[in-house]
Specification:
CATH class of the largest domain: Alpha Beta
CATH architecture of the largest domain: 3-Layer(aba) Sandwich
GO molecular function, one term: oxidoreductase activity, acting on the CH-CH group of donors, NAD or NADP as acceptor
Number of helices: 5
Strand order of the largest sheet: 1-2-3
GO biological process, one term: polysaccharide biosynthetic process
Protein name: UDP-glucose/GDP-mannose dehydrogenase dimerisation domain-containing protein
Radius of gyration: 17 Å
Order of helices and strands: HHHHEHEE
Family: Belongs to the UDP-glucose/GDP-mannose dehydrogenase family.
InterPro entries: 6-PGluconate_DH-like_C_sf (IPR008927), UDP-Glc/GDP-Man (IPR017476), UDP-Glc/GDP-Man_DH_dimer (IPR014026), UDP_ManNAc/GlcNAc_DH (IPR028359)
Strand content: 5-15%
Length: 144
């Protein structure tokens, strides 16, 4: 939805904030890099494999898997135009706030794409995720 809003010149966060002024019946979800975990990004494939035709599910699942890569590409194009060797800090690499789980982490896919594109200076900050769990990036420790 965030991508569609942006295509139409609508700020998705402004739209969500306006909807959140309702006195009831609305739960606020903010746009992120993607969907992570062991179920939400994977389970749609079980339905697709066992069903004849689910084009909306297929399209949306593919879009969510591609989202971290697309956002990384856009960011890299923007920052590399201003800095030949950009340094990027990825804040939060767990699948969601308050989690140290990394299965299908969109933040890690985002960072991997940045690295592949040429961003050699990547680090991450996440209080709940250890350096050992993410060996391909340096961890920025608290207070540094």
């Amino acid at each position: 939805m965030s991508d569609v809003c942006l295509q139409h010149g609508i700020d998705p966060n402004e739209m969500i904030s306006a909807a959140a002024t309702k006195p009831f019946g609305f739960q606020e979800f903010r746009p992120g890099v993607g969907v992570g975990g062991h179920c939400i990004p994977v389970n749609p494939y079980y339905l697709v494999a066992n069903s004849a035709n689910l084009p909306v599910l297929q399209t949306s699942t593919k879009a969510m898997w591609n989202r971290p890569n697309e956002l990384a590409r856009k960011l890299y194009e923007h920052v590399s135009a201003h800095a030949p060797s950009p340094r990027v800090l990825v804040v939060g690499v767990g699948i969601k706030p308050g989690e140290s789980v990394l299965s299908n982490s969109p933040s890690l896919a985002f960072a991997d794409t940045l690295y592949t594109l040429g961003c050699q200076s990547l680090c991450f900050y996440d209080l709940l995720v250890s350096q050992r769990a993410v060996s391909r990036m340096a961890k920025l420790e608290r207070g540094h």
